[in-house]
Amino acid sequence: MKNIAILGSTGSIGRNTLDVVRHFPGKFKITALAAHSNIEVLFKQIKEFHPVFVCVADKEAGISLKRRVGSKIKLFTGESGLGQIVKDKGIDKVVLAISGADALRPLLSAIDSGKEVALANKEALVIAGSIVMSRAFKKKAKIIPIDSEQSAIWQCLAGEDKNALRVIHLTASGGPLRELDKNRLKSISLKEVMKHPRWKMGKKISVDSATLMNKGLEVLEAMYLFGVGPEKIKVVIHPEAIIHSMVEFMDGTIIAQLSATDMRIPIQYALSYPERLANKLARVDFYKLQRLSFQEPDLKRFPCLRLAYQAAYDGGTAPCVLNAANEVCVEEFLRGGINFISLPGIIERVLERHKNTGKPGINDIYHADGWARQETKGLIRRMG
Ligand code: MG
After folding, report:
1. Which of 5, 7, 53, 153 gives 20 to 30 Å between its CA and that of 291?
2. How much distance in Å is there from the Cα of 183 to the middle of ligand 1?
3. At 107, is the secondary structure helix, strand, or coil?
4. Are residues 129 and 154 in the same domain?
């Protein structure tokens, strides 16, 4: 029996993780649940899964939940509660499904206490990848990716000599706007952006998928997770989203990972690894599918992917600044403050104004993150 903590249990990955747990009651037990502020959903989850610990990042929401759950459950509030929960000895595996840079602190606490981490968040690796990976190595904490592409690459590389790797083919469905007329992008609505053709996801990642920044973040994430340079990561548009990524070796052999488009598949593997468990999830039917298609990404149409590659080559604090500027822009877009089409321009301006710090320590990261957020907010305000 594995005791599991889910940070971000009310989001899309969190709910899918609970669904996997629900199907394997003899394998997994929920020990801790943490959410930002959605206490209605969290309350239902508590009643069904009976965790020992609960954390609500939003203090006020936490206090009102406390009244409802009584004293049987150890309830923490605020960001610091996350760090406390992940350290508990009763927890074997931490599922990190919070979105954004806020995941970095709890990720480092989980690593420091030697926990196995099933990682769905990409921002923490993007902004502090070298620090996270070297700490995980030192503390012997395993990081198992949940993100479908990283899970695919990880599975394709299993048992292989990494020195024989020639290139990673990182697949992208292309997002909801792949075939939309270019002139329409200016007036694109929030609703259209949220309508992803293949995946049902949270708000932040839906916007990132529409700009292809999500793929850019994944390039950075793969760089750190697998210890390869950006020149060895190639993005390929694959609209059917059946191949979740491929790895090409120097002898010309390519290994791909395929499955139906259901996040519960990579989530389940991240929970059960190294074991594989039988399930009743959808299967790929090649007779129905008939063909798989591929395209080169259009960097003019999706400048965010170009910016992410640029940050990957620049290294240092550039990926952190790219991420922070993007997070602020996405929030503003969701609030209706800026147009969809203005996102890449703002991020590029912030990157241009940034003074890069090579080999950053954790404080350099937090500093660059704070600077980039202020700078981005200032730019947006002046655009008025
Ligand atoms: Mg992905």
Report:
1. 153
2. 27
3. helix
4. no
In 3D space, the residue among 373, 381, 374 whose CA is nearest the CA of residue 100 turns out to be 373
Q: Do the beta carbons of residue 265 and residue 177 sit within 8 Å? A: no
Say whether 336 sits in a helix, a strand or coil. Answer: coil
What are the φ/ψ torsions at residue 65 (nearest 5 degrees)?
-70, -35
Are 174 and 239 spatial neighbours (Cβ–Cβ below 8 Å)?
yes
CA of 344 to the centre of ligand 1 (A): 20
Domain that holds residue 68: 2-145
Tell whether pTM > 0.70: yes
SS3 221: helix
Residue with tokens 């395929």: 258
Same-domain check for residues 197 and 171: yes
Ligand 1 center from residue 149 Cα (angstroms): 5
Distance from the alpha carbon of residue 274 to the mean position of ligand 1, in angstroms: 21
What confidence tens digit (pLDDT) does each residue in 239-279 have? 999 999 999 999 999 999 999 999 999 999 999 999 999 99
Structural domain contains residue 66? yes
How far, in Å, from the CA of 89 to the mean position of ligand 1?
A: 31
Cβ atoms of 272 and 183 closer than 8 Å: no
Question: Which tokens in the block code for residue 225?
Answer: 């997770």
Query: For the purposes of burial, counting CB atoms within 10 Å of the CB of 276, is it exposed (0-12), middle (13-18) or buried (19 or more)?
Result: exposed
C-alpha 311 – ligand 1 centre gap (Å): 19
Domain assignment present for residue 82? The answer is: yes
**What separation in Å is there between the alpha carbon of 175 and the centre of ligand 1?**
11
> How far is ligand 1, taken at its centre, from the CA of residue 304, in Å?
16
Q: How confident is the model over 304-339, as pLDDT tens digits?
A: 999 999 999 999 999 999 999 999 999 999 999 999
The CA 376 to ligand 1 mean position distance, Å, reads 25
Ligand 1 centroid to 152 CA: how many Å? 10
pLDDT at 252: 98
**pLDDT reported for residue 238:** 97
148 Cα–ligand 1 center, Å: 5
3-state class (DSSP) for residue 26: coil
Distance 272 CA to ligand 1 centre (A): 20
**How many domains, in total, are found in the chain?**
2
